[in-house]
Backbone:
């Protein structure tokens, strides 16, 4: 049987997989739903910057230009991905959204594209990204029709907002960034969840990411003692985003949102607030509706894999959060994870 790999998605994980497939001399192609490479980043909120400094934010084979200690913004990194695909001559086909992936009787896979076209491949690497469908809690349905709802994939900047208080639900890095942006034009309430630990941005003149890499915190497996602690903490660097800093910016900090009634948001401490807009920043879930392959998906709709290897022969994943470790959800983890997945794919062929 002729061997060819289809990589689904041309974000950082898909491009890293393509890099290692090319180095191995494998026959492969890349299909991406967007019009341009990098559009998955361009579609996110305007003020977005990467978690990690440039020195930790490059893919294998091409440095990310600029101050190594500084942080790339959304558009800069999107352009880097586009340049990466171009300079390394990676065969990305844009505007090719996969709407169904099925398994044929001969063991090959068949991808059906939105335009009705089809492509067969002996192996599939799914690199669809971790930010697919924003989660919206059921409490959202208790707000009245006068409240505008936005999610992280819709929100761009404060100019979208109608006049009136804005409630941000979720105090992760994105939620805190969006709270600061919204405060430029409107009153803001940030509804928090579990206590979060923020890390200092630098220690003894070195980036916190340098120290985390040095101590092995980024590469510890999730079932190890260190890895389980890192996962439970879910910390991110404090770049002027502590709750105290947000309070100084005149952002009201509220506990967990537990109920709503028309325009009134109610919190776990019994307090409430009148709101005009709610921005939901409570994370994402996988969209696996297109993956029509038995055993490839868990009951909750998440992709089933172990370190990127599906129980379905010939199916692999890259770019999954905690695929192998904390770095898996960061740019710095895309290259190493993709390299191991490609090695496993080639080894499975030999077997």
Residues:
């Amino acid at each position: 049987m002729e061997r060819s790999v289809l990589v689904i998605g041309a974000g950082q994980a898909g491009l890293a997989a393509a890099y290692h497939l090319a180095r191995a001399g494998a026959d492969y192609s890349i299909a991406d739903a967007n019009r341009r490479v990098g559009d998955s980043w361009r579609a996110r909120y305007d003020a977005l910057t990467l978690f990690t400094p440039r020195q930790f934010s490059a893919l294998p084979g091409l440095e990310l230009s600029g101050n190594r200690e500084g942080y790339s913004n959304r558009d800069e990194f999107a352009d880097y991905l586009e340049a990466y695909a171009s300079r390394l001559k990676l065969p990305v086909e844009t505007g090719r959204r996969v709407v169904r992936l099925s398994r044929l009787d001969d063991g090959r896979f068949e991808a059906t594209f939105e335009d009705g076209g089809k492509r067969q491949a002996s192996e599939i690497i799914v690199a669809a990204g971790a930010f697919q469908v924003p989660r919206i809690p059921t409490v959202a349905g208790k707000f009245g029709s006068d409240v505008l709802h936005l999610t992280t994939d819709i929100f761009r900047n404060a100019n979208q907002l109608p006049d009136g208080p804005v409630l941000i639900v979720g105090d992760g890095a994105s939620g805190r960034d969006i709270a600061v942006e919204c405060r430029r034009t409107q009153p803001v309430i940030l509804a928090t969840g579990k206590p979060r630990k923020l890390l200092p941005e630098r220690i003894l003149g070195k980036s916190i990411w340098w120290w985390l890499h040095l101590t092995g915190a980024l590469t510890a497996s999730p079932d190890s003692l260190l890895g389980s602690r890192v996962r439970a903490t879910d910390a991110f660097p404090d770049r002027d985003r502590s709750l105290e800093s947000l309070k100084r910016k005149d952002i009201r900090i509220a506990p967990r949102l537990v109920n709503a009634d028309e325009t009134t948001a109610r919190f776990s401490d019994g307090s409430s607030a009148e709101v005009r807009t709610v921005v939901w920043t409570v994370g994402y879930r996988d969209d696996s509706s297109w993956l029509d392959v038995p055993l490839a998906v868990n009951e909750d709709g998440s992709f089933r894999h172990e370190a990127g290897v599906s129980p379905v022969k010939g199916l692999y994943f890259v770019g999954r959060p905690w695929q192998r470790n904390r770095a898996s959800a960061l740019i710095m983890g895309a290259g190493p994870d993709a390299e191991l997945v490609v090695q496993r794919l080639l080894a499975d062929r030999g077997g």
Residues 5-132+286-350 form a domain with the FAD/NAD(P)-binding domain fold (CATH 3.50.50.60). The radius of gyration is 21 Å. The helical segments are 12-23, 39-42, 74-87, 173-182, 208-215, 225-233, 243-248, 331-350.
